[in-house]
Specification:
Arc Repressor Mutant, subunit A, 66% helix, mainly alpha
Length: 176
């Protein structure tokens, strides 16, 4: 469990405490950014924005209402969604015929796929598939919540998830 004293110090703008929090969670936060963005440059930008928001909103974190990892992850997810909205991504409809797939990564062990290669497969998903997949499977949102976040219908959310799963399954079968 995260030391309450560390968060208390970080809330008081203690640079050592803030650096320790950053070092503890930077990989986790960056992996979220990579799942939502197709390239490292955009993921880097999103991580930077998220760091600013996490540390500027740290006083809003209440240890009695939840854990820091979940609280900070929600900020990272929201920042990534805002970033993609600013890029004016259209989440409404995505069909396989309209999207070229990125080449498949080769597995390291033949039949075992690394988390890095799995992230690459998720990054290769068309934008709508990727957003819904991340929100539903990774972040645990319901289709109703996703429909509100992305301003799509519940049916579209379900359809995008189904198509994302099928495409990932196809990609995984090709890699393994």
């Amino acid at each position: 469990m995260l030391n309450q004293d560390l968060i208390s110090k970080a809330k008081l703008n203690d640079p050592k405490a803030q650096m320790e929090l950053y070092l503890m969670y930077k990989s986790y936060w960056y992996s979220i950014c990579l799942r939502y963005n197709k390239n490292n440059y955009d993921a880097d930008d999103c991580l930077q924005n998220s760091l600013i928001n996490i540390f500027s909103k740290l006083n809003q974190f209440d240890q009695n209402r939840g854990n820091f990892k979940s609280w900070s992850a929600q900020i990272v997810v929201n920042d990534n969604l805002m970033f993609l909205r600013k890029k004016k991504q259209n989440y409404q409809t995505f069909d396989l015929e309209d999207n070229l797939l990125v080449e498949e990564p080769v597995s390291d062990e033949g039949s075992i796929i690394s988390s890095e290669n799995l992230t690459k497969l998720i990054q290769a998903l068309p934008d709508g598939y990727r957003m819904v997949f991340n929100l539903y499977v990774i972040e645990g949102f319901t289709h109703s919540e996703i429909s509100e976040i992305l301003n799509i219908s519940i049916g579209t959310s379900k359809s995008q998830l189904s198509k994302a799963r099928k495409l990932l399954q196809h990609q995984l079968e090709a890699v393994i």
